Amino acid sequence: MSSLNTTQRNLPLVVLVSGAGTNLQAILEACAQGSLPATVEAVISDRGTAPALQRAAAAGITTHVLQPQDYPDRASYDRVLALLIDSHAPGLVVLAGFMRILNDAFVQHYRGRMVNIHPALLPKYRGLRTHRRVLAAGEREPGSSVQFVTRELDGGPVIAQSKVPVRMDDTERSLTARVQACEHRLYPQVIRWIAEGRVRLADESVVFDGARRRSPVIMDWDETTS
Ligand code: GAR
Description:
- By secondary structure, the protein is α/β, with parallel strands linked by helices.
- It has seven helices and eleven strands.
- The protein has one domain (11-219): Formyl transferase, N-terminal domain (Rossmann fold, 3-Layer(aba) Sandwich).
- Bound molecules: glycinamide ribonucleotide (GAR).
- Glycinamide ribonucleotide binds next to helix 1, strand 5 and helix 6.
């Protein structure tokens, strides 16, 4: 396992996707605008039909498709995936709607160098169909979390969160859209902190500006509270 190298100017990223790729788009735009000192070296998808691949190609980024059905088991898939990622020498692996569970060896290999975004205020609502469960539970203020990936699914130390209040007339679709709009600010911001060397993983804790955090940073943007 190698440690995160944040001394270079632009942090090289490999982004893993399965779906629409709106978070990938936000990261690409932040890099292009110069607000995120990072470069997307490659985008890898487990689904050949993922619209995220078109977004990457439109931005001139190298893309790869690695389909699980082409591998005999999870371990073989994860091994090849790691080799492919490492061939791009990323400083950080970014899971942006990558809907696969990764095995322990893979997660350990990228410990402290892999982040995930999840559409809930973790540790609440791990897993799938988050917004549906949030609405069914009568939750008033869900949100999104960015975390380091560790062995426990959606259980890694959370770096930052953003809250998105539920509205009276919210549907699963409208809530998803507002949470995603907030994710598009949150994810580039957290990756920026990592690129600047301000955030790192130490044991099971997030260290921010040299201090061990007891709780996630809460981002409070006007748009997310209106
Ligand atoms: C995002 O909302 C992200 O939080 C979620 O998938 C969506 C991907 O959207 N991730 C998870 O649920 C991971 N457990 P995108 O493809 O448009 O970025």
